[in-house]
Amino acid sequence: xxxxxxxxxxxxxxxxxxxxxxxxxxxxxxxxxxxxxxxxxxxxxxxxxxxxxxxxxxxxxxxxxxxxxxxxxxxxxxxxxxxxxxxxxxxxxxxxxxxxxxxxxxxxxxxxxxxxxxxxxxxxxxxxxxxxxxxxxxxxxxxxxxxxxxxxxxxxxxxxxxxxxxxxxxxxxxxxxxxxxxxxxxxxxxxxxxxxxxxxxxxxxxxxxxxxxxxxxxxxxxxxxxxxxxxxxxxxxxxxxxxxxxxxxxxxxxxxxxxxxxxxxxxxxxxxxxxxxxxxxxxxxxxxxxxxxxxxxxxxxxxxxxxxxxxxxxxxxxxxxxxxxxxxxxxxxxxxxxxxxxxxxxxxxxxxxxxxxxxxxxxxxxxxxxxxxxxxxxxxxxxxxxxxxxxxxxxxxxxxxxxxxxxxxxxxxxxxxxxxxxxxxxxxxxxxxxxxxxxxxxxxxxxxxxxxxxxxxxxxxxxxxxxxxxxxxxxxxxxxxxxx
Length: 484
Known about the structure:
Ald_DH/histidinol_DH; 7-stranded mixed β-sheet; Aldehyde Dehydrogenase, Chain A, domain 2; alpha/beta; single chain; Ald_DH_CS_GLU
């Protein structure tokens, strides 16, 4: 891999400085690689290349079918190197290899093809009859140069859901991966190079927070798509507001699983485990507040405890491992701090805690932890922990459950579990979130829009709406000829 260079405007170039990012294995706590770190001068070069590609180059002026064909070439290259991509993500993120293969790589790969399918039926140009005698043409044109700023937790998925719709729309794109996980982004850059997109259309610039700030404030950028914490998202929104720059934000979550009185505890526990603890709980739409009927609380707590106790915690390269380390020591310290806070606030740790998991002697691990006897005012119920920590909250009746679920600053996702599907859909309609699942965690279906409300951000990714976010709508009114 080109670890000593940056992918700027579709070509590998030396970085403007000698700064390097050291990538550390979260399980072994040893260096994995050192890669070039981008600096403001590299952003300037990437933006200049992107502006040229958009303002005078062929990419935004191609027929959509030609852009679709180019992105399908990328999907072919991606499929050929899925194994390598998964191994890189495991090495730099610590995601269990089975999860890396399935969710971190196979899902983004399928998303590329799904977006191409959507683009084939997308209304790039449509005719409408005008009310006042004109013929109306509605065009959807690329918004311009897009900056895609992504975090470390689901790096390929989050890059693909920004990069691919932007490319299909005709934008040029600058991808800024997180410093913890740059290797997979650099491999993707190699695949983009092999797909032979025109010069300037894509750049990949690893770097830290300061680089992100410089990029989102750059006057040559027309649209920013950011995924990260709510605090950082507010700063991005403020920076974009200064120049009226388009921005979409996919931010934090504190999603509730509402367990109704007719739900089976064992089935709920299995579903919650998958929806809440994959990727060591480092998922923005994880179900972390488990709302159970007070009369059946013990049954559900016991089932959840049994399910979580059975999880295999350990070496992420072992196919049997279900929970790996957290991405960094600061993340381990943060999650352990929340566990201590939960105990100090009066919640009961049913399983787990701050000790290292049994059989693990190094790495940034946290035991899967289940809290009971909690209420929705506690910090462990209100703040995003981003680790393998679940909080059970008992409710009196259905209205109480709805009130607790909606009593949150966040509104990204949620779920309901019930033997009555119609009842579950009725619950979904009364919860203020951008996405919701009935008898499952929310599935990231490529044909359904994904995004949040309230402090979880605004804008949508995936679905037709994912392409909408990278287009401007132009209306053309054509006077009808006399006698027509």
